[in-house]
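Dear colleague,

As promised, here are the two records you asked about, laid out in our usual form so they can be pasted straight into your sheet.

NAME FIELD: protein one
SEQUENCE, THEN STRUCTURE:
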Amino acid sequence: MKPMLSPMKLILSPIGPWPVVALAALAVMVLTVWGYQQRLRGTSGRWRWFALGLRLAAVLLCLLASLRPSVVIQDHKKQPAALVFLLDSSKSMTFKDDLNGESRWKHALDTLKEAREAVKSLGTDLETKFYRFDSALRDDKAEDVADPEGRETAVGPNLLDAAKRQQGMHIAAIVLLCDGATNSGLNPLVAASQLRTQQIPVTTVAFGNENAGPASRDIAVRDIVAGTVFVKNQMPVKGTLVARGFENEKITVGLYVDDQKKPVAQKDFKVPMGTEIIPITGLTYIPQTPDEKKITLRVEPKEGELITSNNEISTFVTVLKGGLNVLYLQGPNFTWEYKFLMNAIASSPDIQVDLQVLRKPAAGDKSEVDDAVFAPGKYDVYILGDLPADHLTQRQEKLLTSAVEKGAGLIMLGGRSSFGPGGWANSDLARVIPVQLHAGDGQLEPEGGIRFVPSRDALDSFVLQVGSNRTETTRIWNALPPLAGMSRFGQPKPNATVLGHAPPPSNEPMMVSSDIGKARVLAFAGETWVWARFSDEGRTAHHKFWRQVIFWLAHKENQGGEHVALKLDQRRLAIGQKLGLTVTVHDSKGAPISDVQYETKVTREGANAVAEPVELYAQGEEARGSYLALGQAGDYKVTVSATRNGQLIGTDSARFLVYQDDREMENPAADRSLLRQIATISGGEVKAPEELAGYLKSLTGAVHYETTTLTEHKIWDNWPFLLLFATFLTVEWFLRKRHGWV
């Protein structure tokens, strides 16, 4: 216990070291007495001794001032203290794993009610503050007993905020009623350490079961993956299932579309031993109409589940009408071509491309691709990329040839295992290829590469128009870099057209087309990925070229009309996340349209919907913007209108889902260990709920807080001291003047 301080204390602060001050004082006294000695001998009377005394008194005042004396007075005051209560109002407090199976929240409310009664016995000098918290702090209302809805718990920040709100008051203690499941903000242990430096103890009262996590049973569908699909095409839907406490049990996952009560597909999954995470696969949906579809993966709640709100997950998908289906069959040789070509084709919202890489030859009547992909009408266009003929069965070669003759488009790309060197000369497909094929045709790979030169008569063709006009198209083709090499062709067939060739003097054909009955076929000798990597203009030309190739092969080059396309970077996002929007506008030939003005709005579906505007900014061929989801969870719709010169070009829309990130429910286990650490670090105590009332009644000694104020009064630095000094010298001078000493 600290000793009591005296109420008053004299403090000296000499202007120099004590020996120097003492010698100076002695010298002044001696000189003063010596100066009066001669006068004293020639006079008589008591006044002379009085005058000497006045002079010595003035000297003594000067010497006292050199010591700079001060009186420090200590003032002790008693101030009332504050007692602060923090009640966790996050959603994890609704778990029913506490006393007698009641919810943590119900138990905490009852405990706090008893605490309110207990603090009344501490007197009116104790100021009590009651708060609730989840992500932020707010005043507690005793009459509010509804289940909490807080989606996250920020223990650390709210402890510091509660202390800050009592600024100027002594805090006897902070009483934290919580389950310890913190998941946001500053580490609570750091906050406890800061409170200790402020001498603010935290007494913790824990609720909930520490074994609720590993011992509980719960099923959760964590994510859902589904992409854009065309009408009457199969759309696979994937996800992730987390099942805790259901080892070796069967769980049925259903796929639901929009508001349908029955699943369009469902599958049973057995939870293996030793793992809780099961991938959801094998669920498919074939849409019959174009539209925005809301799809949901759902598991019906099972007996014993602690949480049921996480048993389903939803998103939106776009079902396109009249789209083109493309199959890209790539051979085993490494190449960058299919990666860049796939990106170029997939950039069109009207094209769906499937890729299959065949890495080994067919064996008998089986290959790495199914015969069904060559069924008439299955795909609109086939792409063969550096694929040897023996990687397909003879039956598949005939099926592919038949599909082409019935109207499917076909393009064969150059490569070491393509055309004649790939064995296609003796295949059934050779009769629809627009050039003669020979096994020894080989490759041309000159140093510096080979530039692709469009044929003069083909510059105006739909396939090669990569610019807005003939002049611009010519400039772009001249600017593109040469290809690394090319496959050599035999002579073009009589009905074929050479669209492009190598530079003079060889002029060997590089791109040859022909019409085979209802179908169109292209032979292209090189790999075009170097164009996409050359520059932004090269990438744009590469994308446009390959989109136009696909549309031409599918007889879709004259669809007509201008097209506005809206693309969202995601279809489901949590509150607080940002949604990216991209809008493109193209004419009937796929060329981008510039000088477009956009009006974009986001609306939450339902009653009293209010549209929120979104700004779009032009970036090259695209316009981009973003929407920050800060509103309520629910289904939303983005609508964009594009105009040019005041005339409407078109509109497009897309739906997305905003959900509440329910991190509070991911781990239902209470963290009593954390609460014990908070109490220990801050200098507080750990109390069970039933002990809280008794603990509060024991705080009688902490109701008042004694503060000590130190006040310094300088004896020498004030007007009475100066007046006294002046008075001594004045009276002494007057006496000397009167008796003729001056």
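NAME FIELD: protein two
SEQUENCE, THEN STRUCTURE:
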Amino acid sequence: MQRNRLLRKLLYILIFILGLTVSGLHTVSAKKEGISVVVDGKVVNLSKKPVTINNVNYVPLRGVFEQLGVSIQWDQSSATVTASKGAQTMEYTLGNSYARINNIEMVMSSPSRIIEGSVMVPLRFVGEAFGAKVIWNATARSIMISSDETLLSSISPDPTGNTASNLMNNGFAVKQGKWIYGLENEHSGYPTGGNGGYLYKVNEDGGEITKLISAQARMLNVQNDWIYYIGTDGIYKIRTDGSELTRLTDSPSSSQLFVMNNWLFYDTEDGVYRLQTDRSGALPIRVLGNQNIDQFTVSQGWVYYKEFSDNQQIGMLGRIRINGMDNIGYGRLDYEDLTVHGDYIYFNYLDENTNKIGRMPIEGGDSQNLVTAEGYNISNNTLFYGKGTIVYQSEMDGSNGKPVANLKAWPMPLKFIVLNGSIYYEKSVFDEDGQFASAMYWVNLAAKNGGSLFGKILPVEQKLHLYPYNDRKKTNEVEQYAKTIVQQTVRSDMTPREKIKALHDYIVQNTAYDYDNYLKDTIPEISYTVYGTLIQHKAVCEGYALTMKILLDLVNVENYLISGVANGGLHEWNLVVLDGVYYHLDATWDDPVPDNPGHVRYDYFLISDEKMALDHEFDSEGIKGFLERNKILEEVTIDFK
């Protein structure tokens, strides 16, 4: 009896277990038949129905992915799937807990499976690996997929976080409303040269200056109330009030960043990527797989790029669609600083050692020289470019160029930002201790005013070689001595020419050329300075020319230092403007060698280009252009305190 009751109990348990198993199998089967897959609003017919296991939707290897434009290869021997679309690639071996996307291992929440003899893959992971957006609609029992192509429609035609031209200039400043966000270093390093700086903000109407980040940032973009930038170990965003600092990518090698509505475009060591910022879980999509990308810009659905150049070969210039298709090369062209405006690609290039700005049609064709200049920016259909310290503006073809500001000083390479009619640039000096210091400055082109952007006042610039060893005592001694010489040598009733002659004669009569040290190539530092000329009465050409300049400045005679070649070596002398005409003055060559005390020559006193060129080499056209620009720019020159 007991045995029979025990057998009956075991039978009931077995029937219960079998019932659960059958029920479970029935549930999976029902889910198989009830799930639909919809891509961009269209139902996809699959060879095998989707299967849901542990809340993960599995679909056949092919079908959906081919519908998304993904090419699939299956290696039976290694049980490995290789999928690709444009430059984006994925490799997965069945059973692994990770896949390799663009050769980077990424953990999968669920591995692929073989179900009823078919390879089934987790749809969300694989779909998002190729830019698709996957949503499970439990009510409709549908997998809703938005393809990469559909999502790309939200990309703006051109950058929205900063102008493409400002980002070509290293994006060290950006503006939103009345707020200006910019970079500035407390110590060394040029933010304008791409080194990055600390992130500050300031209201253009004045007010408190706020430091947002005490770490290096580069390539500023502002979108809504977020600032996007490149940090030392990836791409970040931070609220404009300084809160919610978030790292978006792990890409320490990035050097360029463009924000285009809800998308980022950036470079890494293996190419150019894009990332959708407003979709949780979105993966970076590689647009261009190329380890040699030097620069790129984005416009109207295309990425325009340039490869590195080396001593053996000039880099390729080309473009590729933002979906990674249709890679087109323009050829090997030695262009720099690419930006696209309208129907043209604009760039810097070098022509016979001369910096020029050029452009070529975006569809390819002959390039066109626009202007000779050292750097450029584009704003409101206007081309801005630099010559020396002077900024010009012109039509987009380089015509009707006119000077608009003299910035006085900036680092090389020339980079400047244009925002709402103002130019932002970095001014740098070496202080009296020989230490580098820089600060960000601005100038409004209409109001002709400007100043330090973040309130940092630079120290007085140390004039190299004017005084020795940054010695304050010797500096004061020289300054007082120079003023005394002018008081004793120059009378108020003298004409400008007589004043120039009196100071020229004083230097020649009271200075001996350091000839012995010149012959032995042992010229001491002091002989290159004003201190050597005035106090020790011994100097070489640089000391003569610098002293001449200081004395002429004290009597308000317009003059400039000039460098060239004479007697087979580098040489310095003065250029003097008298009655609207410029002349050369070389006090060094008017002083006999070996020294003949009291004797003065006038062979090189206020002489013309033609006469000076008989035994001195110099850039005559460059001098004329420089003086003409300074003459034109008298009304727009801005001095910053």
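A couple of things worth noting about protein two: Residues 1-32, 461-469, 632-641 have pLDDT under 50 and may be disordered. Residues 468-635 form a domain with the C8orf32 fold fold (CATH 3.10.620).

Best,
R.
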